[in-house]
Design a protein that fits this description.
Length: 252
């Protein structure tokens, strides 16, 4: 497990200088507490920064490390998942999340898929949102500039290389824009969570005393399908569904 902390200026874009100073102060205090082995203090300081409505992968990564060192596997994985959501390409986040996931009790198999579908899914999910966004914008600007060039240099319109350039830019723009849109839609419409308690009973309905279907343990990830009062209907990656209390889990 990689335990190094991230020391980066996180809060340059805060709404006010007062909040920036407070967030930076508590983040630095959290780092110092972590380095001294006082993980409880580190957690308290990082959580205070989050209470200021800050969201940054560096912060979640450090908080995940502090929870992991405190033997709180559920909250460690929750914060690693939050960091991964913001920085899926970061190798430190990937490594720590994978190492923490190996310590979970539940082993939920993936439904069988064709090899080409696995490769396609991995490829689809591998680029970061920032990469997709910037690539899409650059390709769009390239296409617009290429299209506008015909009005300034009319003679170039019939040139094969010009036609190839414009068509290629348009095709690539539509391709990356489609991937970005699908990824954004999936993230905006699908919610996931992590079990935080040592053991949680998954029941058939959102009521006390309902039939117990199976048990989940801390650190297990699931998809949130709906919420009814203080209950969540969840779905595991193997297709199993049921209800758990909302207080027993954290949203990614």
């Amino acid at each position: 497990m990689k335990k190094r902390l991230v020391f980066i200026a996180l809060f340059a874009m805060l709404a006010t200088q007062t909040l920036a100073d407070e967030a930076t102060t508590y983040f630095v205090k959290g780092n110092k507490a972590y380095e001294s082995g006082d993980f409880a203090a580190a957690i308290a300081n990082y959580e205070h920064v989050i209470s200021l409505n800050e969201e940054n992968w560096h912060l979640y990564f450090n908080l995940g490390n502090a929870y992991f060192r405190s033997n709180n596997l559920g909250r460690a994985i929750l914060n690693y998942e939050r960091a991964f959501k913001l920085a899926p390409e970061n190798e430190d986040v990937q490594f720590n999340l994978e190492m923490a996931a190996l310590q979970t009790t539940d082993r939920i198999p993936l439904p069988p898929k064709e090899a080409y579908l696995v490769l396609l899914e991995n490829w689809f999910n591998s680029p970061s949102f920032s990469f997709l966004l910037y690539t899409t914008l650059i390709l769009y600007a390239t296409f617009i500039l290429g299209w506008a060039l015909r009005y300034f240099v009319p003679a170039i319109t019939g040139a094969p290389f010009y036609q190839f350039f414009v068509v290629t830019a348009l095709v690539l723009f539509l391709f990356f824009a489609s991937i970005f849109s699908l990824r954004w839609y999936n993230q905006a419409t699908k919610q996931f969570g992590v079990i935080l308690e040592k053991e949680v009973n998954v029941t058939s309905s959102p009521t006390t005393g309902a039939t117990e279907l199976f048990i989940l343990h801390e650190g297990t990830k699931f998809q949130i399908k709906e919420q009814a009062s203080q209950w969540l209907r969840i779905r595991l990656r193997d297709g199993k569904t049921g209800w758990i209390t909302a207080e027993s889990a954290g949203r990614i």
